Amino acid sequence: MPSYAFLLAAPALALRHPMSMTAQPPSRRSFVSGAAAALASAAAGPAVAYVLPDLPYDYAALEPSIDAATMKFHHDKHHATYIAGINGKLDEKDQPPIAELMKDAKAKGFNNAGGGVYNHDLFWKALAPAGKGGAPSKALAAAIDKKFGSLDKLKEEWAALGAPASTFGSGWVWLIVQGKDLAICNSPNQDNPLMKGAATEGIPILGLDVWEHAYYLKYQNRRPEYVAAFWDIVNWNQVNEWYDDALAGKAPQF
């Protein structure tokens, strides 16, 4: 992703260093060589600040499971706040791909701001309008049956884990890959299973945000209804790809 800092800086520089009436404009050669140098620098430059991704669907596309007002507030405000938070903690030269940042996020104190970015990046892509998300692949369905007995049994365990009594306050529920096996777990706040030192470590392939901001406008205190409605909008097509990657040791990348 290109850095746009120079675009913001340019007007200020122009004000501080205006060209005098007698100054000669730079030659065409200097413009050409300067542009070439800028392009070369951009191509070889470091990773830049994390940015808010566009949603892969309209705000209202997940209704009735998640309402448009919640989606707009959740994405435009909460996700953006996490991005601003982690960008404020790191210089651009120190910003690796967000999945890489997760490894030592707890040790470095980036688990809330950085985890909030990664978790939401995953969350939006793990959702799709009802009827558009496909179904578990043959391989994933077999793994679900082996671990949980059936998809319905997985949903039952997921509902219990996502209930306020199990995930108290704010947090997430995850379907993860550990080696070649599936597991489900929860995490507090913006922690996730990629983080060293997480209560349960593994590669997440599906996550559910159970912070109140993810559901309260529609469901108020009825979190179990939100957890149940989530299954109607799972993007299994994406989860299937992440499952195959996770078997090879690769976490979702954003």
UniProtKB/TrEMBL annotation:
Its cofactor is Fe cation. It holds the Pfam family Sod_Fe_N. It catalyses: 2 superoxide + 2 H(+) = H2O2 + O2. Gene3D superfamilies: Fe,Mn superoxide dismutase (SOD) domain, Iron/manganese superoxide dismutase, C-terminal domain. The keyword Oxidoreductase applies. It comes from the Eukaryota. The keyword Membrane does not apply. Keywords: Iron, Metal-binding, Oxidoreductase. It is an enzyme of class 1 (oxidoreductase). Its EC number is 1.15.1.1. Residues 136-241 form the Manganese/iron superoxide dismutase C-terminal domain. Residues 50-127 form the Manganese/iron superoxide dismutase N-terminal domain. Belongs to the iron/manganese superoxide dismutase family. Destroys radicals which are normally produced within the cells and which are toxic to biological systems. This is Superoxide dismutase. It comes from Aureococcus anophagefferens (Harmful bloom alga). The lineage of its organism: Eukaryota, Sar, Stramenopiles, Ochrophyta, Pelagophyceae.
